[in-house]
Amino acid sequence: MKFTHSLRATLCIALLAAGIQQASADSDPQTIVFGVAPGPYGDMVNQAIKPELTKKGYKVVVREFSDYVQPNLALANGSIDANLFQHTLYLEKFAADKNLKITKLITVPTASMGFYSNKIKSLDELKKGDVVTLSNDATNLARGLRFLQSLGLITIKPDIDATKASEKDIVENPRGLVFKPLEAAQLPRTLDSVTASLVNGNFAFAAGLKLSSAIKLETLDENLKNVIAVRTADLDKPFVKDTKAIVESPAYAAVIDQPGSMFSQFQKPEWMQATTPAPAQ
């Protein structure tokens, strides 16, 4: 009989402990890990997204990567839960090339690529043999070439898909410029040794460059504006829906539009332009 009472007591204690442990686990906040590249998008998460997710009971961690490769690999393998560093064209090509099940959640305001120089003040000063560095990944290389074409500096073959253009597709280069593709993160560091560089917005900010200091800024197509990406399998999960709702909220817009904010210089996605109230007459 004593053994039976002892066994019952042991079972009760075990069940009570398990219940307390489960209650503690249930009360712990879900952690969402955002991957970003160097630049302003970690600030965007910390200032415009994290506070609202925290109010909803989540714990948010921002993890910075040094390149454009690891954030997507980490997302696909579950090391992080979302990332914010890339535009739609890059995401779609990377996911297809690597066979990754990751997808766009929502487009966000984006810092455009700029034509920067420490040696000249205008495009008119460019001369034959001047070296211009630009990103060497296929998507952003083509983007840079289209930007150069929009500036009247080169002409790309008209019968190709311009989103896949490479240096081989340049048919006119009237100024005799020399183009040197490099890893995107290195581009700001080349400004003291070359004539000019096409620097992506995030790396420009990371290097202390101001958008206003660029000789020219690109006008972003919608598919060149940055996105929050998540695993495709997570699209219907509460944390993903909550993240999207926050980006669409007035609280997020207020941070972006705050006078003097770095984000106020960014080009907004079409959905955000459509929801921006018209100025009072």
Describe this structure in words.
This is Metal ABC transporter substrate-binding protein. The protein folds into 2 domains: 27-110 and 223-275, Periplasmic binding protein-like II (D-Maltodextrin-Binding Protein, domain 2); 114-219, D-Maltodextrin-Binding Protein, domain 2 (3-Layer(aba) Sandwich). The protein is built from 9 helices and 12 strands. The protein has helices at 2-27, 41-55, 70-76, 88-98, 138-150, 201-206, 238-247, 250-257, 270-275, and strands at residues 31-36, 59-64, 82-87, 102-107, 114-116, 131-135, 155-156, 170-172, 178-182, 196-199, 216-217, 226-231. Helix 2 (41-55) links the parallel strand 1 and strand 2 (59-64). Helix 2 (41-55) packs across helix 7 and helix 2 runs antiparallel to helix 8 (250-257).
Index terms:
281 residues; D-Maltodextrin-Binding Protein, domain 2; 5-stranded mixed sheet; 36% helix; globular
Write the layout of secondary structure elements.
Elements: H1 2-27, E1 31-36, H2 41-55, E2 59-64, H3 70-76, E3 82-87, H4 88-98, E4 102-107, E5 114-116, E6 131-135, H5 138-150, E7 155-156, E8 170-172, E9 178-182, E10 196-199, H6 201-206, E11 216-217, E12 226-231, H7 238-247, H8 250-257, H9 270-275
Parallel strand pairs: 1-2, 1-3, 6-9, 6-10
Antiparallel strand pairs: 3-12, 4-12, 5-10, 5-11, 7-8
Helix pairs in contact: 2-7, 2-8
